[in-house]
Automatic annotation (TrEMBL):
Residue ranges of coiled coil: none
Name of the protein this chain belongs to: Protein kinase domain-containing protein
UniProt-listed PROSITE patterns: PROTEIN_KINASE_DOM
Compositional bias (Polar residues): 514-526, 535-563
Pfam families to which the protein is assigned, alphabetical: Pkinase
Region: Disordered, residue numbers: 512-566
């Protein structure tokens, strides 16, 4: 084995993607093949200078391929001359079998002429992929790689579980095989630094979905995510690129993202340990929650959020003005945790940066919900964090028989997540467990944050009784109550703006004049919206009786009655949500008491929390070593008794 062959084999890196194969990273030949090395193989005489220049300037990969094909050292000059005379350079690689044979095998030649054999051709063709591991250019939307391509994923490959529409893997990527591109149309990559690890999502078909639909979903999701990159929002996980790999017509489809070193929000709640809550922890947490609210605002209202900023011109140029995005599946698992590996804050633990990921259900739309007559096609989501209107169908009241998903879906989901985050801040992981157990029934082991009640022949949603109990308990906690506290203000945002069943009547200022006119015209041809709102509302009318004033007319002697419908405060939109969070975090108050006036009290004991089809769940907190020996009720049947950390749960049939 020659020195060159040995060096080339040592330069190989194993690919962890798919088959057990090796590749030679891009740029490796620059320091392996120099003028001295080339001279050892093609000669060092003056008349051989042109051949040496040819190799160094145009054919270093070709030179390495021939060396690995099994050609003997003394045969190299003649073989290299054959390729030089045929004007074959690195730019013509890779070669297929027919093209290679036209160059090196002549009908009148023998193996003695040129020193080339069928075995050399076989080795040459099978070695080529090692030198052409793809380079991911982030300025390109999609990459198509044949099945023979050896993808440059190195280090460990780890399956991380499944998202809504795919399986997610962790890979290391060779830094020479990801570039930012030179396209000035992609300023988001100007300061790109190749990450050590990436998350690769393999797209899988949805339920009953054909391959063509899956491919369309991959293309659509990639397009939406690339448009979202233009938001330049630090709290949204950016897509790096998309690619497919395999035999034509049967390729696997992938999306590539930044790798979240900490996992997701649920893992943050589990892994971040603290001896006690501090004002520094509260500040760090609220800063991240503000960032998440800003991300939702940027996604829901891109042009509005960009006004008076340098991004407004970018949006207009890229055609984003008037468009908006909604996530559709917000949950702790989709809030990714990017640890700051270099800096821990003053709290002594790594809060890092939270980013919203897995936009698999995301939609780019330019028609507000009230203007969309047909239901959107999203079919998946997580019921735990879905809003009441997903069950009742009362997303807008222009037509009760049409069910549409709006951006307000995300606002409710953020309310659920923020409440869980607040419970974790105050009471830790044990508090979160107690909260979860307070909502669970035998009939519904994963209940949403609302319940459905029947009234006036229609189902309507109410905030889950246990959620209300926990929010009331938190409001009285020493860490939240008092004259203005950060966590108390956060609780107010959650229950006054986010976990609100009632929805805004119409989009108002969020619509353009054209959209408002279209809505007005369409509504007049269907049903009067105000009538529908009143009929479907739970509001209590305020009746005002005015005393009549004496006049000459008998008709004027009757009292007048004014009926005023006072609508409850509806769920907030993204802008209001963001501004309220900004008001908390940017509040000009240096008092530590604002951030944490006192140590948190204990979490809520498990209480009677729900009725479900005649079944009542009784949760009795016990003190000390009290033991429940017997449970008897004349009007009930004992279904079961369980105990969790000093709390006995009694299930009875009423």
């Amino acid at each position: 084995m020659s020195k060159l062959t040995n060096l080339l084999l040592q330069a190989q890196q194993p690919s962890e993607f798919g088959r057990d194969q090796n590749f030679i990273p891009k740029g490796s030949l620059d320091h392996l093949i120099d003028r001295k090395m080339v001279g050892l193989f093609v000669g060092e005489k003056e008349e051989e200078e042109d051949l040496r220049d040819f190799v160094l300037e145009k054919a270093t990969i070709l030179f390495a391929l021939i060396a690995l094909s099994g050609i003997k050292k003394y045969e190299m000059p003649e073989v290299m001359k054959v390729f030089k005379d045929a004007k074959i350079t690195d730019s013509h690689l890779p070669l297929d079998k027919e093209s290679l044979n036209r160059i090196v095998i002549d009908d009148d030649s023998s193996d003695d002429e040129g020193g080339w054999s069928e075995a050399n051709s076989f080795n040459f063709l099978n070695t080529q992929p090692k030198f052409f591991a793809p380079v991911f250019d982030l300025s390109r939307h999609n990459h198509d790689f044949p099945s023979s391509a050896i993808l440059p994923f190195i280090k460990e490959a780890k399956a991380l579980g499944q998202g809504t529409f795919g399986e997610v893997y962790k890979y290391g990527i060779h830094p020479a095989h990801m570039i930012k591109g030179t396209d000035e149309k992609h300023p988001e990559y100007q300061e790109f630094k190749c990450p050590e690890f990436v998350a690769v999502k393999k797209i899988r078909p949805g339920d009953g979905e054909e391959r063509a639909q899956m491919v369309a979903s991959w293309e659509k999701e990639g397009a939406v995510l690339r448009d979202m990159n233009k938001l330049k929002q630090i709290h949204i996980v950016p897509i790096l690129t998309a690619f497919r790999h395999g035999h034509q017509g049967n390729e696997d489809h992938y999306l590539m993202f930044e790798w979240a070193s900490g996992g997701n929000l649920r893992q943050l709640w589990s892994d971040l340990k603290r001896e006690r809550l501090s004002s520094g922890i509260v500040k760090a947490a609220l800063k991240q929650l503000l960032g998440l609210s800003e991300a939702i605002y940027n996604a829901h209202e891109p042009s509005m959020a960009a006004e008076a900023s340098e991004r407004s011109n970018l949006f207009a140029k890229d055609g984003l003005r008037g468009d908006f995005f909604r996530h559709g599946d917000l949950k702790p698992e989709n809030i990714l945790w990017f640890k700051d590996e270099e800096h821990d804050n003053e709290t002594g633990f790594n809060m890092g940066t939270l980013k919203i990921g897995d936009w698999g259900l995301a939609k780019r739309q330019n028609i507000p919900t009230q203007l969309r007559i047909h239901r959107t096609t999203t079919k998946f989501g997580t019921c735990r964090y879905e809003p009441p209107e997903e069950t009742t169908g009362h997303i807008v009241n222009l037509r009760d028989d049409i069910k549409r998903r709006s951006r307000l879906y995300d606002i409710w989901g953020m309310g659920c997540i923020f409440l869980e985050f607040l419970i974790w801040l105050l009471y830790g992981t044990e508090g979160l467990k107690k909260f979860d157990h307070s909502m669970i029934t035998k009939q519904n082991p994963c209940p949403p944050f609302y319940e459905i009640e029947e009234g006036d022949g229609k189902p309507h949603g109410v905030v889950h009784p246990s959620v209300i109990k926990w929010m009331n308990h938190i409001a009285n906690d020493p860490a939240c109550n008092g004259d203005g506290t950060a966590l108390g203000d956060l609780l107010n945002v959650i229950r006054e703006d986010l976990l609100v069943v009632d929805l805004p009547e119409k989009l108002g200022s969020h619509m353009s004049e054209t959209e408002q006119a279209a809505l007005s015209s369409w509504a007049q041809t269907t049903t009067d919206e105000d009538d529908l709102q009143a009929a479907d509302s739970n509001d209590v009318p305020q009746i005002t009786v005015n005393e009549s004033q004496p006049t000459n007319s008998q008709d004027d002697q009757k009292p007048t009655t004014n009926i005023i419908m006072r609508r409850k405060k509806p769920r907030a939109r993204a802008k209001q949500f963001y501004l309220r969070m900004e008001g908390i975090v940017e509040f000009d108050d240096n008092r530590e008491e604002y951030w944490l006036p006192a140590e948190p009290g204990p979490p809520l004991g498990l209480q009677v929390c729900s009725r479900d089809k005649g079944k009542e769940l009784l949760n009795i907190p016990l003190e000390g070593s009290t033991v429940l020996d017997t449970v008897t009720r004349n009007d009930s049947e004992l279904l079961g008794v369980t105990s969790l950390k000093g709390v006995v749960t009694i299930r009875v049939s009423i």
